[in-house]
Fold these 2 entries.
Entry 1:
Amino acid sequence: MFSYRCMRLIIPRPSVSRPPCSCCFQPCLIPLGCCGCCSALRPRYKRLVDNIFPVNSEDGLVKSNMEKLTFYSLSSPDKLDRIGEYLYQKASKDINRKRYKFVEIAMEAMDNLLQACHAQTTLNLFVESFLRMVQKLLEDSNPNLQILATNSFVKFANINEDTPSYHRRYDFFISKFSSMCHGNNDNIELRDSIRLAGIKGVQGVIRKTVSDDLVENIWEKQHMEKIVPSLLFNMQFGVNVMFVKKNMLASGDLTPVEDATVVTPPVLAEEVLRELVGRASFGHIRSVLKPLLTHLDRHELWVPNTFAIHTFRIVMISIQPQYSYTVVETLMQHLDNNFKSSPKTRTSLAVVLSKIIAIAAGESVGPSALDIINNLLTHLRTSVSTTTEITPEESQYQEALINALGEFANHHPDYQKIEIMLFIMNTVPDLSKKSKGDQMLQNILLKSLLKVGTQYSTTSFEKAFPASFLQPLLKMARAPHDPTRIIVMQIFQSLLDRHQNEKVLSTVSIKPYAALSQETPSRSDIIFTHKYGANIMQALIDSMALSEKLDSLTSSYNTAALLIVEMACGETVQEFLLFILGIQQVATTSDDLSNIHKCCLHIIAIALLTLTARVTGINNLLEYAQKIIEDRKQEATYLLPPLLDSKKSNKSYNLNLPHLAIDKMALAECLQNAGMDFNRLQTGVPYALNQIDNPGHRHSWVESVSNHMTHRNSSADLTAYNADADSISSSPGVSKKALAPEYTVDAMKRYLAEPPESVKREQQEKQKQIVRAFRESDFEDLMKRTEPKHDVIQNRLNDLFNSLSIDNKTPQNAANQNEKPIYETNFPELFYY
Amino acid sequence: MEEYKFLFKIVLVGNAGVGKTCLVRRFTQGLFPPGQGATIGVDFMIKTVEVEGDKIKLQIWDTAGQERFRSITQSYYRSAHALILVYDISCQPTFDCLPDWLREIHEYANTKVLKILVGNKTDRDDREIPTQIGEEFAKQHDMYFLETSAKEAENVERLFYEIAAELIDQARSKDNSSSMNKNLSDSVGLSPQGSKPPQVSCCSGLSNQSSSQTGNT
Ligand SMILES: Nc1nc2c(ncn2[C@@H]2O[C@H](COP(=O)(O)OP(=O)(O)OP(=O)(O)O)[C@@H](O)[C@H]2O)c(=O)[nH]1
Ligand SMILES: [Mg+2]
């Protein structure tokens, strides 16, 4: 048995079907070229092959004879395999004798035949000889032969073969080309040629195998672990060159045309990586990413992360868009695995993440987007919970994560930003948790929320502040910890500020704000103010009373001022006046506030009054405010801006000056003189502290507003609600059933049969119901009723919170949590299409 | 005559600077290269030897010892028939790393791969690892053992010829006992049916009792 195999070896192309030798009519079992009895009558194909070689190797391939050989091969395709074998034998001998020119000629002849005959069904056998030849050349230590062989291989790789090739293997080629990619010849030019050849070879193998399932599976680990690092190794040296070139291009020293003609190993390697990533289907992405990450780890390319960013950008740009999410996910898992690495490394990783996350954002919607957010938040939690003392490096890492979050949110449409904010809001530990860790976490998460908030551009407050978001935010606005509260105020500011006034209003002043930009509040703004304005102002009063620190007070003022600029108008002014009176009242009635703190509240009250008067353009009001200011200038300048700094002054100021206070009746009079409604102001009670648990107190105004709306402006309000009546889920007070048509066959029939008038009547009835609901319910109730709007997202959130709250502060858990349901893993196609 | 009877893949591993490249070049080119630079990634060399009249083709993959290339070099372990693990007898740390190397080999190479421990640079007079210690270690870990000097050409030929002989034995016993397992005979690039050289699988049951014999010089 074994000796038989040996025979087959010695006779390179034996086969039972081999035809008898043309001269002796014996089955030809004797090795080629040694058939003594045939020497006089060599087979035709051999003579044809011999003739393509010149006498003097310098003369190169004999073209005319090559044409004859080609013609012969085309007319007798059955001889193709023997021609290939013979050429291979000849070249082998020439290699051993180092007659490299002849080797070149043999290779060129094979290339020609391959091109000419690629449509032949017998090509397969010829290809085997061809590839053995390529391998033979690649095995030689002569670099020129290796390059020559690679070029032939590349030509072959670009040919589309018609017949499948079941038993062809490419592992030698992958191994050898990868090795060439690391070429290290002392001669730099030769080194680069070898590396280029290696990269081209790799590209060839990819092209040859990627579309053909029958041959090598290029995506297998042992191949990707060679190919990917080889490409990256070459790209690594390109980053600096690239930047130089970019600068040169920018400065005009290098024209793009010139640039394009020079293919360097880094440039080509990058191109091949793009091609590889572009061809990867869902199941293959990780096979590419894993060695990629390992390479970056091994070659310490995270800090600094220029190359890592560059590489990941390439991946993100080249990958089929529907898979870009996987890249983000994989990078996050890598961050998980690095939880023990230095904060510097983690920061770098997070920065890379932030640079690519935007590209994935466009493709990941709904749950997957929340998964990413959730993962980032988990990393933040881990960072907070594992470090007792936050070092500057660690906080840089947190900063980087927050930026990633912001970047991610930034590339989502605004309605999804709201969902994201809602999601983050719900992960913030509530105020009952008072440990230092929880406090840090609150701040970090609120900062992330702020990051998203600043990306959101508010058009309608109704949309920017859904009840389920507003409610917890208002709770947080009363956080005892100053920095926490300030972040919440910043969140409010970024969501309230539709006209870029935040900077303008950042100082407390009674002078006109010159750069203030303003627009009359819309109907929907007014409705929002009526619905939720009071709750926000209530929270602001509480926050103002919580601290006498300048930054804290200024930040609350800023929020209040923005609220006024955005919402104050003839219809809402009374509410704001009650708010301002409330601030003043806290200053006069709360015993536990410091003297300086009380002064500050008076200052804020008068500044807000002046602002309100200016914004609403009610001159009587402005005159009244200015009169108070004048009096205070005479008697008590400490009741005028700027705010007093408790750190700098410990004087006790006289606050028992009722004649310098803002007077409620006087305000009502101002309105009256301006011909405006003053009923609410006259009968209403100024805001007071800690009203959160007692909405009953405030809800009085809801009624009064409703009544007032009914008799004053009902038609306008109705139209406003009409617009809303179409959106079923957002309409409170009306059960879904009543609103949504019943989609049963009967119902449809009825619907079709009914005259349009009745449909109209039905709609009117629905609208009336909605309007009634708004008028007759108090705030809390309304909120409860509007909540189902967020049902779907809420459920999803709840799921995630539950998993979060099982104290999964270790990254391992986080990773588990990200595991895909089984059907996703097994049927990715099903899932994605 | 060009054809060969067996093709074996041999991979050299070990710390940077232990002399892997020098061993390979001594064997394939018969020289000791002055100022041999560190290997980048993986180098490839081929040499055909004759054992008992049979031509044997040895594909030699010389890996970089540097840490940063570890991931690409590991990917070459898998298809190896023989792994030569090299340390420098005049450099204790290169010996101390051997367990790490074995762990990697265990993780990435074929379980039945032929393993040879080589202590190189015997020509140096500042030896830190006695022969005995190296031999003990090899025995413990089921490896063949040999001490070499690439510089003085000592035991270099022998190293590769012993490997070839051992692999031939394995192949023969395998071939006689059962038909060849095509899956395990990881081949050269091509395996056209008919002209395929008999492939060796490196998985025959290998007993290393003889390892010390091989090593005693
Ligand atoms: N004295 C002596 N020096 C040797 C011997 N073999 C190698 N060297 C020297 O050791 C140094 C490293 O040899 P290399 O062959 O490059 O080592 P390597 O294991 O290939 O190193 P990497 O490629 O970095 O993994 C060189 O300076 C050689 O001259 C030897 O047998 N004796
Ligand atoms: Mg080396």
Note: The first helix of chain B runs from residue 20 to 29.
Entry 2:
Amino acid sequence: MFFKNLQTMLKDNIREYGMFIALFIIMGIFTITTNGLFISPRNISNLINQTGYIAVLAVGMTLIIVIRHIDLSVGFLAGFLGAVVAIALSSWGWSVYIVIPFVLVLGALAGLLTAYPVAQLGIPSFVASLAGWLIYRGLLLLATAGTGTIIISDPVFNAIGNGFIPDIFPNRGFVPDVHIVTLLLGVIAIIFFVFSAISSRKKEQAYDFEVLPPDMFILQLVFVAILISAITWTLAGHNGLSWTTVVVLLVVGIYHFITTQTVLGRHIYAVGGNPEAAELSGINVKQMTYVVFSSMGMLSALSGILFASRLRSATTTAGTLFELDAIAAAFIGGVSAAGGVGKVTGSLIGALVYMSLTSGMNLMNVDIAYQYVVRGLVLVAAVVFDVATRSRGK
Amino acid sequence: MSTPILEMRNITKEFPGVKALDEVSFSVATGEIHGLVGENGAGKSTLMKVLSGVHTYGTYTGDIVLNGEVMHFNNISEAEEAGIAIIYQELALIPEMTVYENIFLGHEIHNNMVIDWNETIKRTAEILKRVKLDVNPATKVRDLGVGKQQLIEIAKALHRDVKLLILDEPTAALNEDDSENLLRLLREQRDQGVTCILISHKLKEVINVADTVTVLRDGQTICSLDAEQGEVTEPMLIRQMVGRAIKNIYPPRESQSASDEVVLEVKNWHAYHPKLGRDILEDVNFSIRRGEIVGFAGLMGSGRTELALSLFGNPYGYLVSGEMQIKGQPVKFTHPQDAIRAGVAYLTEDRKGAGLILIQDVKENITLANLQEIAKRGVIDNNAEIKVATEYRRSLNIKTPSIEQAVVNLSGGNQQKVCLGKWLFVKPDVLILDEPTRGIDVGAKFEIYTIMNDLVKQGMSIIMISSELPEVLGMSDRVYVVASGKITGELPIAEATQENIMQLATIE
Ligand SMILES: Nc1ncnc2c1ncn2[C@@H]1O[C@H](COP(=O)(O)OP(=O)(O)OP(=O)(O)O)[C@@H](O)[C@H]1O
Ligand SMILES: [Mg+2]
């Protein structure tokens, strides 16, 4: 009975679980090939921090692809805005608390600029954003002209990419060398998850919707609880939760909420599903295009901030190929190029899969040439899997 | 005429949550026109998809026997090779390509992969003659009307030497002349030895052309009636389809609900189509009163849809001039959003292209145009949404296993009801219905007409654009006739007849 239930659950949700399974397999393989180095707290913490700047881009890119567009400009926009941050902090002497909102607004404006020819004149976004790619690349070169690298010395700013959340009883808790606040947050997250899962299951039952059988439901809860515990325990063993993780979780949380629970989200997915029907249902397609591109611009700025902070500097090559990494992450995460389909949480997992590959192969000292080939193969495999399971669902 | 070309035995096809076909048996004699009728969601399209290889071998149970041989189609081309061609209700032509490119698409005439265009065009001309279509093979398909496009679909099927031609609601979007034309063509093809299966909700035409009619209900074969063994009548079919008799096709209006208050007035309305480069509406003047159903009659392409769209926030960017008043207040809509806010709703005639988000579910489609109503500060209240969707599913009798079913999986008629539900939820003052019962079965038509009557009783005003004259005559309080972008006449219902409407509709 149990195994039969398990089988049907896996079968019915293969698309959703597929990515998790892939992530586990990839992590498992690297753990073995690196003699456990991959799964060490230090490496996991590093991996998550490196994923950060791609993950936020992938979240924005998800919505761009959902409304049937593409934005190639985001990588160098992130790089350029990172340079702006560096200049503002070191040359203009601005406070970090002003620089960050300022750059986020700049990013949103840049997004609007990309959206303008797309929404008003019907220019393909590929072309419009390719122009952006060239322009921001040029601007990045200009901004970093001279030394080539602008060092950032602001400690608050650099903490975003390298620092960790503070602890309450550093080195004094019941377990030494473990980050108490991180553990507490993990426990809260588990409790929150369990409660919300139970309440939404109750609601669905009240409406006679199909729900998982009880044993599978409990299995799911236990599985997620173990997953969260494992991650928090690992992170707690290495300085705890990093600020980057906090930022990424916030971004994913907010976007997940917007896309699943709000009118705005519904409108965005409607535009992606059928722009003509959306327009005739009173949704302003142009306006949605502006909204989605400016959110993308803002997230590019955030990505630029995370990256500059991580490197404690702005460089001429910052942002190179970020756009393609973000697009790959989104597609691995299950976004459909046909529009209207894709979850931001999926893209987060996609970004983790993608960055795990990089991190694991780096640990194994795999030649960069092979790394690209492997990443390409994984991308193809993910998309093929996605398409195959989708047509079977019909 | 007695040897069956096709026998489908005990076909069962299940989708998650629905048994679409339940042990259906279906037999078609060689060289006949076989009508297939049934309510929305009865399983007609599904049965034909099983036959034509869309639902592949192994996804259903039962046997398909073609000319005495059991067939296992693993894809559509295998069915095509066996001589089966299916024409869906939604046209599958490529608008930007020419007639000859479309007809030979996928079956190009070539020498060593180089297409022989001269031969293609020559053969196209021959095929067009066969379907009696007088157009230049080099015309782009988008420049032709739906009626002609439908004939091209048939031509496309014919050139491949079909034995069994399946037409799924081919006349739903056609006007009477074009329908006549198409049915005549079917008869001719039959006389030349092509067997046809015709699915339609227009029972009159089925009775007219079909030699045998099979009725499906809830995924089961109810009966097969042979015209040679006694006349098949409309009431007879209806009784078999819905399981009870329906006396009136148009429900009577209890009381006259129209008041004197004018809710919508349009004066000197002009529209110019920038892409076509010509005027599409000229000097249109009309008014709608509260609680009135006003029919807009006319031929396909007479400009009624364009008129409705130009009033409904003009989403396709025509250049519009003129005056529009709602309840005496002049209004100017720059987007459908403005129109909806001002209480005007428009049900499109193109439900798949412009009406539904096919990949989203029933619930999401119904609430799409009025999310504000179920949201607080921009956050959707899921419970409220489920309540609303459940309510419309019940009142419109939408057949779906769940409100969380993607609408792409619903039958055509049920998709139409979802579209209608979306606009009812907006609770407009003026509801513009563009071909509201296209593809809808008799029972459901009756339900929709009843709903329309209820709505006007509650004070809504309805503009009904319809190419079906009986429907216009049966439902309207007043009729405007539109021809070539102009209103050529206004008739109180007492004076309107098929003849005088047709006469006004064909004024040049
Ligand atoms: N791909 C699918 N997935 C799930 N359910 C489906 C699918 N296709 C059809 N159905 C269901 O099967 C039933 C029969 O549908 P079908 O399209 O055959 O009806 P129909 O007789 O053609 O109706 P209509 O006259 O409205 O076109 C319906 O309940 C429909 O919801
Ligand atoms: Mg059908």
Note: The pocket of magnesium ion (ligand 2) is lined by residues B 44-45, 168, 411-412 (CB under 6 Å).
